[in-house]
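note to self — DONT lose this again. spent like an hour looking for the file last time. sequence + predicted structure for the chain T wanted, 308 res
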Amino acid sequence: MKINFKSIVAALLLLVALPLAAQDQACELNCDVDVNAEQVQSANKNVFQTLKEAISDYMNTTKWTDAQFSTNEKIQCRLFFTITEWDDGTGKMSGNLQIQSMRPVYNSSYTTTLINFKDNKIEFTYQENEPLVFAEQEMVSNLTAILNFYAYLIIAVDFDSFGSHAGDPYFEKAATVVRLAQSSGESGWKAFEDTKNRSAVLSAFTDKATSPLRDILYDYHRQGLDQMVVSVDKGRASITKCVETIATVHEAAPMSVGISMFKDAKLDELVNVYSKAGTAEKEKVYDILYDLYPTEQTRLAKIKETSN
């Protein structure tokens, strides 16, 4: 029997290439999911374990973009569901959802928070062991719509933090999710229904009056934190401009949820950023932030207390 060595070599090369290709095409999210149902009175809570597993699988195995991600480039994020009500018969659940996403800072071991937001109006129907099905151009269920929206938001914000308005395609996908969901009658999606619902979150990044929030994502992270390894003063100066921009956004749209989203993601970090700033710079940033967040005086005072 004649052995075709070329065929054998080609087959071996293919076997080597397949794992590499799979790595290159890794899904975008490394999402930690938790479901807390302690407030639900029920003897059988297996449904919440299968819900957790289904959401984790959905978030981490769906290919959300056409971009190539290696395993170590995955976006770190977390979804923490708190279920407060559950109808065993219909499978209807309600509660809230904490969304967090992070990104590494260039040439450091530090990870910065991009999103830290609590959605207080989570309602969906789920039965034990029910599979979650992804569809980009239709609304399969309110649960998958919620997951789709926050997946695209996490990706869009992450892309924006590395390249100016690089998240455009994913904000557009998030907008498609909102449009589809608004016609469903489900809560949490309607424009002007709530200043902190999912429609309001999308508007914070896409409406003209508040669109500078997207410039902040790039200027704060790429021009600010990432540059501090090279020049602390230069990086901090970019962050100071971002604080000034937040004040401008507040003047244009004081009720925008984007203002509170910046606070929840960045306020504690800003204390560290200005720990070695000069007195004048500290006073300037403190005064701007105090006007924006007067109820956070205790946390803000730490900006002035830190030593040079």
